[in-house]
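Hi R.,

Quick one: here's the PucR family transcriptional regulator sequence you asked about.
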Amino acid sequence: MPDVASLQQFEFFSNFTLYAGAKGIHRMISNVVILDHEGFDGNYTDFHEGDFVITNLLYAKDNPERILPSFSKLISIKVAAIAIKSIYYHELPKEVVELAEAHSLPVFFFDSVYIEDIILNIVDYLRSSEKISYLENLVDTVIYTETPETALKQLLSHCCPDHRHYVSSLYLTDPSSKDKMSLQNRLNRNSFSGKQFIDSSDVSFLIYKKGVLMLYFSEEVQPSSEIMKNWRHILSVSNLSPGDYQIGVDDEMLPIRQIDIAIRRSIYTNRCCAQQDHPRAVYSSMHLRTLMLSLSENRYAHAYLTDLCKKISAYDRRHNTRLMETLYAYAGCLFHIDKTAKKLTQHPNTIRYRLNKIKSILHCTNDFEFQIIVGLISETLS
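And here's the predicted structure, written out as tokens:
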């Protein structure tokens, strides 16, 4: 469900001025309604929690004392915000402002925009948000449930064209996007939705979590080089510059019945980008890193590794040491002691001493076991 602050992405909002209740701009919006005759007769049965209320205060044109009780009633209903078209009023009585501030109710004044246009924009926004939530839940069910048959069929019916048997996935995130909808609006402006890009294949995109999940379907299995060529073309014709995004690509096609695996591959590869501070990565070059990242979603594995880190951190606090820092640096330097020493500006023997101390704390009996644990901690908890 979108919040009041997310309306800033729309052009009409440039005509809005926040007058009171700034602390409430993250209230959730569930509907958009007009306040009109209710200000006269006091019947607010058609108003509900989460409503974005639009009014011109006609009911209080010559009676400003009517504003306070109407706002009090709307506050008790827990509406999301009130937007006032500045026809009859350009400011509010002091007691109304104090009431809005006390209850963190955002109150806006606006002009130079039709109320109908505001309503249409917000209604479309809410519908898009509902669809995003539905598809996001479908994807979650598909990739995190042991037997997701029903959800799998629903997802494929939504995004997979007929006679397409194989899929590749790309997960794109944009650190500069404020929320899911602003990213979708950018894609819509680029005319991405529903476009056919490549002969004998189709592309679908879904807003998922904090990014965009793109699914590329094909009639036949394609080699990695061809898949990457097609993804570059897709991004190009979509006016999506790869340099502006963090991108993880599954460069190995899978049967559509394994779409859950394809999606996970691209998501984990995207996370590897963040860890390596690199804008793009492909699945085939990640090796065991994506497998390690998958353990971050395993409740037991996460708890086990977190417990190990707590033991090391506790030692650091008691003895004013830097063992956790050394552990992460050691993993980042691919278990090279000399490189770790250079990174931390320490003597290699100092690094060896610290690593041996970590081994002792974790009760590791050999280097192989130790490196696996260090790698898992670095990949799943960083």
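Residues 298-381 form one domain.

Cheers,
M.
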